[in-house]
Design brief:
Length: 282
């Protein structure tokens, strides 16, 4: 008997804290907390073997959500620097997604509540590891997007991060891509996002944007600028002729977006400009 096996074993004897099961040569404990149905009158029981928190071989009637042959969505329950993230695989013990399978920056590691599409690997010593699916495996889930999705919103999960952008699988299994220019902040691996379809491609995938529509963005940008002005007692050293790089660094928006937002605020008579500065109207 070894960790990771699913076996049908005979009940050897009962103890206060569960049952000892046997394959005829070795015994293993099925703790009462791992019993999912009444086995009082059974002679045999089918169990999954794993190593408990003290490294001892143990049995459970629970079934793992994933296996070495079966990928599935699992919930992230914790993240530990220099180790990786732990995911709930349906057992009393969580599985580790090691750092080698995660982005190089912890800022975009999955957080508690995020989801990963993984398989399960159990070592001979009972350590449980989960490995995110490669592209060819997750592609088995994909369905084709239709042209009527243009400008509609899709919700889904970020399943892959690259230097070129973020890949998403929607709730309807459509493959989506978010270019860095279509977001203000890089989403986490495993994060749930809602994005707008900006292109339906011939291969059935879509390009997505996390940026608000222009008219909505103008309102958001205007409020961000006004909040910044108020935080500086009603004045800021930026105006519509400021350097684009300075605007990008301070507000994380393009100069065109910045000028549109300033124009909106001036039209509403909430600000005015003088000699390179912008002031709040009192």
């Amino acid at each position: 008997m070894r960790p990771g096996q699913q076996l049908t074993l005979k009940i050897d004897h009962k103890v206060d804290y569960g049952y000892f099961l046997t394959d005829g040569e070795k015994n293993v404990l099925l703790h009462r907390s791992e019993i999912t149905e009444d086995i009082e009158d059974m002679e045999e029981v089918t169990v999954f073997l794993y190593a408990d928190h003290e490294g001892r071989l143990a049995a459970t009637m629970k079934r793992p959500l994933i296996s070495a042959d079966e990928y599935g969505w699992v919930d992230v329950v914790d993240a530990v620097s220099d180790m990786g993230v732990f995911v709930n695989v349906g057992l009393s013990k969580d599985a580790l997604v090691a750092t080698e399978h995660l982005p190089p920056y912890e800022s975009v590691w999955p957080q508690r509540g995020d989801k990963l599409y993984c398989m399960l690997k159990i070592t001979s010593h009972g350590r449980m590891f989960a490995k995110p699916a490669p592209e060819d495996k997750i592609s088995e889930l994909f369905s084709e997007a239709t042209p009527d999705l243009m400008n509609k919103e899709l919700s889904g999960t970020v399943y892959r991060l690259t230097a070129s952008g973020s890949f998403v699988i929607s709730d309807s299994d459509i493959r989506g891509f978010i270019h860095p220019s279509e977001r203000k902040q890089e989403p986490r691996l495993g994060e749930r996002v809602t994005a707008r379809v900006i292109q339906v491609k011939e291969d059935g995938s879509v390009n997505l944007s996390l940026l608000p529509r222009k008219q909505d963005a103008m309102s958001v940008d205007a409020e961000e600028i006004l909040t910044y002005i108020k935080s500086r007692n009603g004045a800021m050293p930026y105006w519509d002729k400021s350097d684009p790089d300075d605007i990008k660094e301070r507000f994380n928006m393009s100069k065109a977006a910045f000028k549109r937002a300033l124009g909106r605020l001036m039209k509403q008579e909430r600000i005015y400009q003088e000699e390179g500065w912008t002031y709040e109207k009192k």
